[in-house]
Amino acid sequence: MAKEYSYYPGCSSQKGASGSNLQKSLDTVLDVLDVKLNDIPDWNCCSASIGYSGGGELPRLALSARNIALSEKNNPGQEIVASCAACWLATRETKERIEASAEVREGTEAALKEAHLEISREMPKVRHMTEVLIEDIGFEAMKAKVVKPLEGIKIAGYVGCQTNRPFGIDGESFENPQYLDKMVEAMGAESIPTYEKKVSCCGGALAFSEPQKSQALVKGIIEAAYDNGADMIVTPCPVCQMNVEIYQDQINSTYGTKFHIPVTYYSTLMAVAYGKSAKEAALDGQVIKAKKLEDIANK
Q: What is the pLDDT of residues 56-65, one digit of tens each?
């Protein structure tokens, strides 16, 4: 029987958006693992970083509270799951802020009332997709589905900062989380547990407003991967994937480097290891082609 969750897709997962490859490969993987995602109807943007820049606290929290209310109304009794780090953070923060403050709850409930929505006293748990895979499926069960082990590929697991702080994954170190390395190993590839930039920030939205600062951060992330002999970088975060992959040419031009390393999602690795096609794994959406994964997928 399929495990069911109330799913908050987020803006980046939409067709043609920056995280659409994550969504496509994730759908492939969850089908194999017998996990069903029930989209929250009429969901809205979590406000991500722009919500902190001038809109005020209540409007920002109310946006995520609306998604929680819609989830409770349409997918009752189901935990809320997000695959995007920013969406997960915004939704989980909103839940915890409302639970911790009567004033925040009062203001949020008043805003929701205008939209004819309400939240319960005990809102559903909010989880990141990797939490579901690790805690509800487990590494051994994920490994059991592998039909094409990713042998001969050395991978730097780049967790990023938003998936790691302030919440992180239960039982994991904030300085050196190991779950992404364990997922890589479960797929038959070689991990780099000591990769020193695995929780470093890629600069996030600074890539647009102050690109020189973001690119300096990304340079360090890529350089460390090369120094550790990585063939590719894998991440759970749409912003991390985008920033570390698409700006390599600009970084090369600025710093005189010759970076050309693929940056994929964990779900892309899993889809290939589960015997799915390059298209089903969303490898056709890579800017820098993950040739070693394509070779395995095409066997």
A: 788 889 999 9
Question: Is 108 found in the same domain as 151?
Answer: no
Spatial CB neighbours of 167, under 8 Å, sequence gap ≥ 6: 89, 92
Amino acid at 298: N
Gap between the Cα atoms of 288 and 124, Å rounded: 39
Q: Give the predicted TM-score (pTM) of the model.
A: 0.94
Q: 284 and 163 in one domain?
A: yes
Beta strands in 40-112 (DSSP E): 80-82
In tens, the pLDDT along 129-175 reads 999 999 999 999 999 999 999 999 999 999 998 887 777 777 777 78
C-alpha closest to that of 83 among 114, 147, 37: 37
239: number of Cβ within 10 Å: 25
User: Is residue 179 domain-shared with residue 243, that is, in the same domain?
Assistant: yes
For residues 190 and 54, state if they share a domain: no
